[in-house]
Specification:
Layout lengths: L16 H9 L7 H9 L3 H25 L4 H9 L1 H33 L6 H16 L3 H15 L4 H5 L17 H10 L1 H4 L5 H4 L10 H25 L2 H6 L3 H6 L10 H32 L4 H17 L2 H39 L1
Helix pairs in contact: 1-7, 1-12, 1-15, 2-9, 3-9, 3-12, 3-17, 4-5, 4-17, 5-6, 5-15, 5-17, 6-15, 6-16, 7-15, 15-16
């Protein structure tokens, strides 16, 4: 079985999977996941973060287990397990999910720009800028996409000093009491952090682009672990910086926290954070749309640039005809609850179907 027909020269080293996973998970959700988490679990939000991280590691293990049997991508796995027509139907669902996730991140970041910086700049103008950049990166091939993911992670970790600055105003009693919530509340908190943990599933599409892909598992787990630790740090700092009531009412806790930073040469440091976040979030925009266009190329045998054009036009039309806050609300309602449930249910079932089919072929 070939690996979705990918030439060796287009593949990247296993080491880069760490950056692909971590950069995809670190994006829009980091700016405001604390609010919904505080509403659901309060000071026990850290338990929900650990549980979400554990679920991600299990799902990554499942993905690599699937590809150890069926080398390729999710389309190869679906066709092997379910046949061409049913397999293509589920592959199309994944493509739609990748597209909606990419659109959610683009519109979500435009909403952040409107709230914090340029409220009068039309959404379509900002979307046009990002879509040109996304198209340019994606047409450079997967190696270019990987390079962007690597550079954004390396170039953005200086932002860690921003939450650490919050310790200057910390009240550590705000983090108490612990173990004060029910299991159901903890599970609700785990669901509320889903947007901050999504992104690892892009492995389903870029697995064939990794050299000796089976050896990249440890790097995928490493990227997910780095994201979990980052979310724990940000939530802990936010919990001791705000009271629980403040945290539950603050729309963008991470950005609001940066507004207290005072430097002699910068009056509004949150402008720096929002602007630099455009670099952080680029892989979040690029990788899902690359995955969606790659999936369409695999299903319908068309050049990848054509579905990129269509998806870009669709995102631009949404930006023109819908207010970003309204469209963002609808998209979040689609992405947050359903995508996680779909992945948690579908991947184990897919592994079962693949294992049964492999067993039957051996008979």
């Amino acid at each position: 079985m070939n690996q979705a027909g990918v030439n060796e020269k287009y593949k990247v080293s296993p080491f880069y999977v760490f950056f692909l996973v971590h950069s995809m998970q670190t994006g829009l959700g980091v700016l405001n996941f604390q609010r919904d988490l505080a509403k659901a679990t309060g000071t026990d939000g850290w338990i929900s973060i650990l549980l979400a991280g554990l679920i991600v590691h299990i799902l990554i293990w499942l993905i690599y287990k699937i590809f150890s049997i069926v080398p390729g991508d999710i389309i190869s796995a679906n066709n092997y397990a379910l046949g061409k027509w049913i397999g293509n139907f589920f592959s199309l669902l994944f493509i739609i999910y990748f597209f909606v996730l990419g659109m959610t991140i683009i519109i979500g970041y435009i909403n952040v720009i409107h709230i914090w910086m340029f409220d009068e700049v039309p959404s379509w103008a900002l979307a046009l800028v990002f879509l040109f950049l996304i198209y340019y990166i994606n047409t450079g091939g997967f190696r270019t996409v990987t390079g962007i993911a690597f550079l954004t992670v390396i170039g953005s970790y200086w932002l860690l000093f921003v939450p650490l600055y919050g310790f200057k105003y910390a009240d550590f009693t705000s983090f108490l009491p612990v173990f004060d919530h029910t299991l159901i509340e903890i599970m609700k908190g785990t669901r509320s952090i889903s947007l901050s943990m999504l992104g690892f599933e892009m492995i389903l599409m870029f697995y064939p682009f990794i050299k000796n892909a089976e050896t990249s598992k440890k790097y995928a787990h490493g990227g997910a672990l780095a994201t979990t630790l980052l979310n724990l740090l940000i939530y802990f700092v936010s919990s001791v910086f705000y009271s629980q009531k403040q945290l539950a009412l603050t729309l963008w806790p991470t950005l609001t926290m940066t507004s207290v930073i005072e430097l002699p040469f910068i009056q509004r440091f949150e402008y720096i954070t929002v602007s630099w976040w455009a670099i952080v979030i680029i892989p979040n925009m690029v990788i899902p749309l690359w995955a969606a266009s790659r999936g369409i190329k695999r299903l319908f045998n068309v050049q990848q640039k054509y579905p990129l054009w269509v998806m870009s036009i669709m995102i631009l039309l949404v930006s023109i005809f819908f207010f970003d806050i309204d469209s963002l609300y609808v998209l979040n309602k689609i992405i947050n609850p359903y995508s996680v449930c779909f992945l948690v249910l579908y991947l184990p079932l897919l592994l079962v179907f693949i294992s049964i089919k492999k067993w039957r072929r051996r008979l």
